Amino acid sequence: MAITIATLLFVAMVLIDLVIVITTQNELIRAEVSRGDILLARLQDDLIATCLWENIGSHSAAKARIMNMLSEAGVSCALIMGRDSGQLYFGERQCSTQKSLVTYTEQAVLSGKNSVHFSGKIWGVFWEQNRNVIISLPVFQNNEAVAGASIVLPLDGIYERLRQSQKIFLIYIFINTAILAITGIYRLYKVFFQPLARLAKRAEEYGDDDEFIFTVRKEDNALNTLSKALNSMLRRISEDREKLRSTVMSLERANLELKKAQEEIIRAEKLASVGRLSAGIAHEIGNPIGIVMGYLELLKQTDISETEKDEYILRTENEIERINTIIRQLLEISRPSRTDPRAVEVHELIDDIADVLKVQPLMSNIDLERCLSSKNDIVLADPNQLRQVFLNLMINAADAISSMKKDAGGKLIITTELEMDIETGAQRRRSMLKIMFIDNGPGIPEENIKNIFDPFFTTKEPGKGTGLGLSVSFMIVEGLGGKMTVNSEVGEGTTMIIYLPLYQSGQQ
After folding, report:
1. What domains can you pick out in the chain, each with its CATH number?
2. Are strands 410-422 and 366-372 parallel, antiparallel or unpaired?
3. pLDDT (tens digit, 9 = 90+) per residue, 65-94?
């Protein structure tokens, strides 16, 4: 603040000095021109009395007198010229204005008028200025211009005097700036800053139980309006303090009641979830039980070999073990457990599930095709969880196709391919295994697509689905660092897409 005030005062005084110098300089130049006019008037009288221009060589005394007069007046160059006679030049022979003198004198004789001209350049006080002033006038005899005279007055002395005065004026500017800045800062401090500091201190010391009043002294008149406004504001705050406390207590009671209501809703939701989870468990284990029943029917046949019986028994044991795994995985929706991931060959897993399903009645009218073209199919995962995901997607596709009741049958295509992905945040490209389950079922309406991965969302008839399958699958894929998406149009079928990061050597 102090530096700003001092700078503004200094700039203001320098501008005042500039105006004064320019005004004084112009006045001094006009005074010099007036002096030149007087000097030429005296010279004109001598010229008329002696007729010096008619016979320049025979008037040596007159020439000497004129030369002395011009020299005493500080004229650097002069020229007397008759209309029809020669020139009489005074001053240095190499005067830079000699040619200009001849021109301006001839113009004065021809026009019969006085003229003032400037010539040359020299450094003034702040910038370059005119160095000389040339004054010309005609000499009249019998109302006729018979001769002319011009003189050159140097302006160096004017600029020198102004520069000398500037030294004193600059000292005055610095002293005056310091005095005015100190005085102004002191007054600002007393009138504004000190009262504001007191108000700020009072504000910092304010307590909830204080009767706070902003006091202002008589000399603080400039802050009276602010103090009154602050006092009025704090008075209203004090009056509303009890109302505010009462409102806060009411809000706290309302908040407690809302929390109780929320807990009741959560308990009700849990009760509903238990019922839906029970139905979901029955639905999820129903698939492998159906497979087991299918193998048992096959085992009843008498025309199968011992090798086939052993294979069916082994597969039945695997499906029973899978039932136990499914129950555990479904319960992990609310209580996830730690898994032990390892390198898994996805193609082998898909082939195994396809071999299991192709003998099931659900797939009897569905053509299952596999286009497993990815050169690398190894991912880091829990094989049981990954099996559950693939099995769920295949069964969902079969259910959707069967719901259409088409005579021509349906088709389910499973494809794999490699694709590059960009990790969010790290911006590092990585290889992904893209697995697609493509069916020609009825498709999913657009309004349902955004909800299919929500827990317990289903479009199946009551008792045939709870919406847990896709939710669990989505959770498993996300846990493996992948993602699951869906593309579907009504009447055009559905494509479920899974992206899984490929296994890298040394990965845990």
Report:
1. 2-171 (3.30.450.20), 340-501 (3.30.565.10)
2. parallel
3. 777 777 777 777 887 777 766 666 776 555
